[in-house]
UniProtKB/TrEMBL annotation:
<keyword id="KW-0472">Membrane</keyword>
<dbReference type="Pfam" id="PF08551">
    <property type="entry name" value="DUF1751"/>
</dbReference>
<dbReference type="GO" id="GO:0005794">
    <property type="term" value="C:Golgi apparatus"/>
</dbReference>
<keyword id="KW-1133">Transmembrane helix</keyword>
<feature type="transmembrane region" description="Helical">
    <location>
        <begin position="118"/>
        <end position="136"/>
    </location>
</feature>
<feature type="transmembrane region" description="Helical">
    <location>
        <begin position="56"/>
        <end position="73"/>
    </location>
</feature>
<feature type="transmembrane region" description="Helical">
    <location>
        <begin position="156"/>
        <end position="174"/>
    </location>
</feature>
<dbReference type="GO" id="GO:0006890">
    <property type="term" value="P:retrograde vesicle-mediated transport, Golgi to endoplasmic reticulum"/>
</dbReference>
<keyword id="KW-0812">Transmembrane</keyword>
<feature type="transmembrane region" description="Helical">
    <location>
        <begin position="85"/>
        <end position="106"/>
    </location>
</feature>
<dbReference type="InterPro" id="IPR013861">
    <property type="entry name" value="TMEM115/Pdh1/Rbl19"/>
</dbReference>
<protein>
    <submittedName>
        <fullName>Eukaryotic integral membrane protein-domain-containing protein</fullName>
    </submittedName>
</protein>
<dbReference type="GO" id="GO:0016020">
    <property type="term" value="C:membrane"/>
</dbReference>
<dbReference type="InterPro" id="IPR035952">
    <property type="entry name" value="Rhomboid-like_sf"/>
</dbReference>
Length: 222
């Protein structure tokens, strides 16, 4: 198959047949190319399958994500209703995926490193869970959650910042850049949706100061 003559399009539309990419361990994860359905993966041989050992960390992350989704979703469904919850999950999950796609395409263009297209995987559940933290901040910002048998108390309004900071630290320690991208885009998308578009009691959005973007950060750095 002949290329298009445009390097970035050639990489997206005509991937290297010899590159089978990194296996996606988590069903919520996609690469930049597989997001658009252009990723052509070769059939993997039984010998190669036998050499691959299951990665435990993605499975743990998957279990934590699903449990968190069920628990948080159950509460939000009671408050918002099923239709609004599904719409919120769709917005906070889909928009960050495309934002991550654009981010890694630009990273590829800037570095010419094909790993940004074929190997780097973005987890959409990260964005949804960050969106849930934004939703809880909007609903019960002053509620306090006690952790570690009451040793640590955290106000709900700081959950989004803590969620983002945690993923930033993990990115520095482990190089998990995609999770930071998904967490940041999930926070921004969810905040914009609730702040300007979500209907509540006949009013669109929430323009109160308690839900301003500055309120997501600790008071010392606001």
């Amino acid at each position: 198959i002949e290329g298009s003559g445009v390097p970035i399009l050639d990489t997206l539309l005509f991937p290297d047949p010899a590159d089978d990419g990194s296996p996606i361990q988590n069903p919520f994860q996609v690469t930049a190319v597989s997001l658009l359905g252009f990723y052509l993966r070769n059939s993997r041989s039984p010998e190669k399958e036998a050499q691959d050992e299951p990665d435990v960390l993605p499975m743990i992350a998957l279990v934590v994500s699903v449990v968190s989704l069920l628990l948080c979703g159950k509460y939000l469904e009671r408050v918002w209703g099923s239709r609004e919850l599904l719409l919120f999950c769709a917005v906070s999950g889909v928009v960050p995926m495309f934002a991550a796609f654009l981010f890694f395409v630009f990273e590829y263009v800037g570095t010419n490193n094909p790993d940004y297209l074929y190997s780097v995987q973005a987890n959409g559940m990260t964005a949804v869970l960050c969106g849930f933290s934004v939703a809880f901040k909007h609903l019960v910002p002053e509620h306090t959650v006690k952790l570690f048998a009451g040793a640590v108390s955290v106000r709900v309004k700081y959950f989004p910042f803590a969620f983002l900071a945690l993923h930033l630290v993990l990115a520095i320690l482990t190089g998990l850049l995609p999770r930071v991208v998904m967490a940041a885009s999930g926070l921004m998308t969810s905040w914009v949706y609730v702040r300007f578009f979500r209907m509540q009691d006949g009013t669109r959005g929430d323009r109160s100061e308690t839900f301003s973007f500055a309120s997501f950060f600790p008071e010392l750095i606001q």
